[in-house]
Design a protein that fits this description.
The structure is a single chain. This protein is α/β, with parallel strands linked by helices and 375 residues long. It has 13 helices and 14 strands. It has helices spanning 3-18, 51-67, 82-94, 111-119, 142-163, 192-205, 223-236, 249-261, 277-285, 296-311, 340-345, 352-355, 361-367; strands at 24-25, 38-44, 71-77, 99-102, 123-127, 136-140, 181-186, 211-217, 241-246, 269-270, 290-293, 320-322, 325-330, 333-336. The chain has an eight-stranded mixed β-sheet with strand order 1-3-2-4-5-6-13-12, sandwiched between helices. Strands 8-7-9-10 form a four-stranded parallel β-sheet, with helices on both faces. α2 (51-67) packs parallel to α10 (296-311), α3 (82-94) packs parallel to α4 and α7 crosses α8 (249-261). The relative contact order is 0.12.
Length: 375
């Protein structure tokens, strides 16, 4: 028995005593007649964001299965609980995981996962969120995403402001200014990607003739909390909110719900990120101005291929180095109403049948996504 085998066996015993769980094989340990090559673990942070269960998980499992029929894939979702994610990682390591692909709930707490993996001779690929000490990192440039959001918001509110009459809004307070006012609804303050998006947003808005009325870091990226805060700000700044910079599509949905509940028509220009189906539908309907589409299937595919190469002892090609960690950065894409057909539909992200359900059929017809229904 090798030293690593002895250590893994010891940890496995501890895992059984501690009752660690929450992860299960997504693929069998090798197809019939195929030697077992190793075990790869995928750890995702939460399920509130639709992409994780709809795209990242199934794509990762599918690509890994094709690239490495002899690999076992373990999977767990932490439900936004850092302690649960640590237990899930320990369980995977106890089952002999050679590579962990980790999208951390808490990137500081995740240092403990990296340390345990290194102690057992396993490698860690930080996925979507940077983790100090990881062996590799696969993600998008989130500051650039923030810049895309801020640039889109600035252009849209300025254009809309120019189209409206110069008279002050009757509902606006006495201190209201003529220039457009916006709310910045960021992601979680404990999440590095949210901080990077916020930095990119500020860079885009710097020098623009726009008044930032207030900003908020949304705990756990919660749409409900974004709704509550936006409702309060619409009351605080009546008639002054021309735009809402929402850091992702879930937050965008919450902000738009608040605006509609307040009777605003049209709703303020609202951004988003992730390219969720509901966001695409809101864009077609004119409720959401844009989203930043990240090809999460491409990201999951890249991470899966990287994990297999690492498992096999190969040296994968990377595109950058971030804080000493070899990194693969992928390019995001801003998507507005005019981009839905060629980016989303032609790119096989969602079909017109998925987008143009009955509630959005008229909007899809106006956008030219589908023809008019036959009487």
């Amino acid at each position: 028995m090798t030293r690593r085998t002895r250590v893994v066996a010891a940890v496995a015993g501890l895992a059984l005593v501690a009752g660690l769980g929450g992860c299960a094989p997504s693929e069998p340990a090798g197809a019939a007649g195929v030697p077992h090559e190793g075990t790869i673990g995928l750890l995702l942070p939460e399920a509130q964001t639709a992409r994780y269960e709809a795209s990242d998980h199934p794509t990762f499992v599918s690509v890994t299965g094709r690239r490495c029929p002899g690999c076992t894939v373990l999977y767990a979702n932490a439900g936004q609980d850092a302690a649960a994610q640590l237990q899930q990682a320990e369980s995977m390591l106890a089952q002999g995981a050679d590579v962990l692909v980790l999208d951390a709930v808490d990137t500081v707490a995740a240092a403990g996962i990296v340390a345990q993996a290194k102690r057992l001779g396993a490698q860690v690929i930080a996925y979507d969120r940077f983790v100090d000490g990881a062996d590799y990192y696969v993600s998008y440039d989130y500051e650039f995403i923030g810049f895309l959001l801020g640039s889109a918001l600035a252009g849209a509110v300025t254009e809309r402001d120019a189209e409206t009459e110069a008279e002050p809004d009757a509902d606006a307070g006495p201190d209201a200014e003529d220039r457009p006012g916006v709310l910045l609804v960021h992601g979680s303050a404990t999440e590095p990607n949210a901080l990077a998006i916020a930095a990119g947003t500020r860079r885009a808005l710097e020098g623009e003739d726009i008044d930032v009325l207030a900003e908020y870091y949304t705990p756990d990226w919660s749409p409900d909390k974004a709704t509550e805060w936006t409702e309060a700000m619409l009351t605080r700044f009546p008639g002054q909110v021309d735009g809402v910079l929402a850091a992702n599509d879930g937050i965008a949905g919450g902000a738009i719900a608040a605006a509609k509940a307040a009777g605003l028509d049209p709703v303020p220009v609202t951004t988003g990120q992730d390219g969720e189906l509901s966001a695409v539908q809101r864009i077609i309907a004119g409720d959401q101005y844009m989203t930043v589409y990240k090809a999460t299937d491409q990201q999951a595919q890249t991470a899966a291929e990287l994990a297999v190469r690492v498992l096999r002892g190969e040296e994968p090609r990377t595109t950058a180095v971030i804080q000493g960690v070899p990194t693969v950065l992928l390019a995001p894409r801003a998507v507005g109403a005019a981009d839905v057909e060629h980016v989303i539909v032609d790119g096989h992200v969602y079909t017109t049948d998925e987008i143009c359900v009955p509630a959005y059929r008229d909007a899809c017809e106006r956008a030219g996504l589908i023809g008019e229904a036959t009487p």
